[in-house]
Amino acid sequence: MDYFKKTKIAHILKENDKARDSVIVMGWIRTRRDSSNLAFLEINDGSSLANLQIVLENPENFADLERAKLGASVHLEGPLVPVPERKHKIEMHPISLTVVGDCPPEYPLQKKRHSFEYLREIAHLRPRTNTFGVISRFRSKISYAVHKFFQDRGFYYVHSPVITGTDAEGAGDMFRVTTLDLYKLPFVDKNIDFDKDFFASESFLTVTGQLEAELMATALGDVYTFAPTFRAENSNTSRHLSEFWMVEPEMAFCDLFENMQLAGEFLKYLFRYALDECAEEMSFFNQWINKDRIKTLESVINTDFIQCPYTDAVEILKKAKKKFVFPVDWGVDLQSEHERFLCEEHFKAPVMVYDYPRQIKAFYMRVNDDGKTVGALDVLVPQIGEIIGGSQREERLDLLKDQVEYFNIDEKTVDWYYDIRRYGTVPHAGFGLGFARVLMYMSGMSNIRDVIPFPRAPRSAKF
Fold this sequence. Notes:
CATH topology of the largest domain: BirA Bifunctional Protein, domain 2
Strand order of the largest sheet: 7-12-13-18-17-16-15-14
Helix content: 25-40%
Oligomer: single chain
Structural class: alpha+beta
Order of helices and strands: HEEEEEEHHEEEEEHEEHHHEHHEEEHHEH
Radius of gyration: 27 Å
Strand content: 15-25%
């Protein structure tokens, strides 16, 4: 088999008027039709939404044709023939067909529409469907766009650790990492002796790469991480995952408002990239998933972000002639219904809310002069609300220590974090964007488990 000489179907379809004497194509059979002296196959190799039509003349000459069933993988060699009068414009008339992998009749992906709920149960096969093939290619292209945005602006990509000893968010909902025998735990004074554990201390799967990104920013200037993060929240909603990827830039010598500017530019860049470089995928989403996707992204791109202090946002919500499910008052975190009201009904534009109450935000956020608020930032967009969260970090050692005490954090776990304030501290800021959340927004998919190949959620860690 000439595996390395194969031609991608996407490349063939892109040059769909180009005849060739002989090419090698490999892929999986999507459909098959037979007539008295012809057989028609459609195959796909995962490189495009559209299939390549295969026309087999004199089917009796192809010994493997009997095995060429739906779902089987095949190796084909032969000429490409332009057919400009037909919808598919080009087809292959092979001289050889070899079945690489057979597929039995009970193949789970029959030629019909399957519900997303059913496909989640066979997540190892669902990338072969049209929708999840599109989602997978789209995810890859937008991942590249993330790197391109930051690399073009002189940011350095840094790898933050997956295993950590710090609860950066203070929520406590973290997965533990241990090699201790859970049936024979070692104890000291009725407490688990973590000195006997692999890392000689309590260890967890990280909820963010931000703290390590801060360290790298104080050495390299502008950096970003793009890595998996974990939350052990027992939440089964359509917007939560237990394992997800976060994009987290961090900039030295940067304040809150410069941070807000970068966040807005980043979001618009991703949306523009999707419209310009992912036309096939966006067209599919617009046709089959949500008919407002392209219009929605264009609206955000072409609209200036409104900057609104949290205190002003609360007053707007309290005066609104609308009854909210969750009451609004100063000191309470905004809910999705509040965020969407600000974007969709009051400002009719994407909004950046900043300067949140100290007590509802994380310990590392910079305390404002009023002592009540911190330099926090949430970017809100129509239809979902928050899509980016960030802050200016507390660079003053004495005030950071106050924050650690205020949130009842064990100083021993953050002493290393103090050091970047002890030795040449600088103002710095950053934000986090949940990659799956932004893919949901761009594609119109309604469940976050459908924009990641193998979703991890409570009571579900298959594959």
